[in-house]
Design a protein that fits this description.
The chain is of the alpha/beta class and 373 residues long. It is built from eight helices and seven strands; from the N terminus they run βαβαββαααβαβαβα. Helix 1 packs across helix 8 and helix 6 packs parallel to helix 7.
Length: 373
């Protein structure tokens, strides 16, 4: 388990539920003609061209593992206090996981304020339970992506007629452009959220990358997650949940110089948490092609992925979501294709029981994990 009790310091995290107008009908940052499930997806994008003048963005061209930068490690070798040994020592031929890549795909449209607040409030107990349960993990990555590619939701019409809606603290989104290419790239990790209810600040992750690693200063970890996950509610109403997830995992965006350089690792279990209150009606492809695209990024091994979905429960015998809620038919089919999966109602008052189940599933997945190669 996580021996370093870093997440126990986290305070309750809340988001504002104030909404700004959605911006619909925008096209993908990858342009037209993208086929999800092919290796060409995202092959020409996801590279941070920040010239370093503003101090914001990734440190391009570095193919080293950020977890090797000398920061605090989660050293969990050997048995725990109950005498339980690591998955790699339990027999059965499975090596067990020693690393986890956590990817949160958060809908940042106008209706998501209270759902985002529930997610953030659940983060501390979720990670604390992970710390207490999952053995042999000594490295983690934690990244957040949004369901659109726009740094702010402010377009020329809003700036022309409703400029007051585009003033976020000291930031005027009508006069200040995105700090780097990555801030306007679909699937790029969030490190400068902007909009109504967002952090509205540069999150200053150690090393300049767009995800959290054990290199973060010990006392800064809870605040770092709060900063990147506080994506707000000014995003597009044309949510592309699957497209953003797939874009975040592509080789180019994870390779040297990419926005998410080094995030996705062959020797790590991938844990995806998808939270949205809408169907995915805008990502190209089908539920099956989305599944195949994610699977390809983990060497074709579905057992190396945990898929957690907080979506509308319109298929439940007694739904929690109100009547008339969008039925996420394609998203539900996509999520259920993964063998290691849990779905929960995004309309629940809290997500405690959902994440408690998720920890047990992650633990089992880690026990059976065999790294690629």
């Amino acid at each position: 388990m996580f021996k370093t009790p870093w997440i126990a310091l986290a305070a309750p995290l809340l988001l504002s539920s104030l909404a700004c107008g959605d911006s619909d009908g925008r096209t993908s940052a990858y342009g037209s003609g993208v086929t999800l499930g092919s290796d060409e997806f995202g092959s020409n994008d996801g590279v941070d061209s920040n010239d370093g003048n503003d101090g914001i963005g990734t440190s391009g061209g570095d193919d080293s593992d950020p977890t090797d930068s000398g920061g605090i490690k989660l050293d969990t070798l050997g048995g725990d206090e109950d005498g339980r040994t690591s998955a790699g020592n339990e027999g059965g031929g499975a090596q067990g996981c020693q690393a986890i890549d956590f990817l949160f795909v958060i809908d940042n449209s106008g209706s998501m304020g209270n759902k985002q607040a529930n997610l953030l409030a659940s983060f501390q107990p979720f990670m604390t339970k992970i710390q207490q349960t999952v053995v042999d993990v000594d490295s983690y990555h934690i990244m957040v992506v949004k369901t659109d590619e726009f740094w702010s939701g402010c377009d020329p019409i809003q700036c022309g007629f409703f400029p007051q809606l585009c003033q976020f603290g000291d930031i005027n989104a009508c006069t200040q452009s995105a700090p780097s290419v990555c801030d306007d790239t679909l699937g790029a990790g969030v490190n400068y959220p902007i909009g109504t209810g967002a952090s509205n600040q540069y999150c200053e992750l150690v090393g300049g990358q767009r995800y959290i690693t054990p290199a973060e200063p010990f006392l800064a970890l809870p605040g770092r997650f709060s900063c990147i996950a506080n994506v707000g509610t000014s995003g597009s109403g044309a949510e592309r949940q699957a497209e953003s997830l797939i874009a975040a995992l592509q080789p180019a965006i994870n390779g040297p110089g990419g926005c998410n350089s080094g995030f996705l690792r062959d020797d790590a279990v991938l844990v995806v948490t998808l939270i949205t209150d809408e169907e995915d009606s805008y990502s190209p492809g089908t539920a099956n092609s989305w599944y195949e695209a994610v699977l390809a990024r983990k060497g074709g091994d579905p057992t190396s992925i945990v898929m957690l979905g907080l979506i509308n429960d319109t298929d439940a015998a007694v739904p929690i979501c109100p009547a008339g809620s969008d039925d996420p038919v394609k998203l539900r089919e996509f999520i259920q294709k993964f063998p290691n999966t849990i779905s929960g109602s995004v309309c629940a008052d809290n997500y405690a029981s959902f994440f408690e189940q998720a920890v047990d599933l992650i633990d089992t997945t880690c026990d059976m994990f065999e790294p690629i190669g």
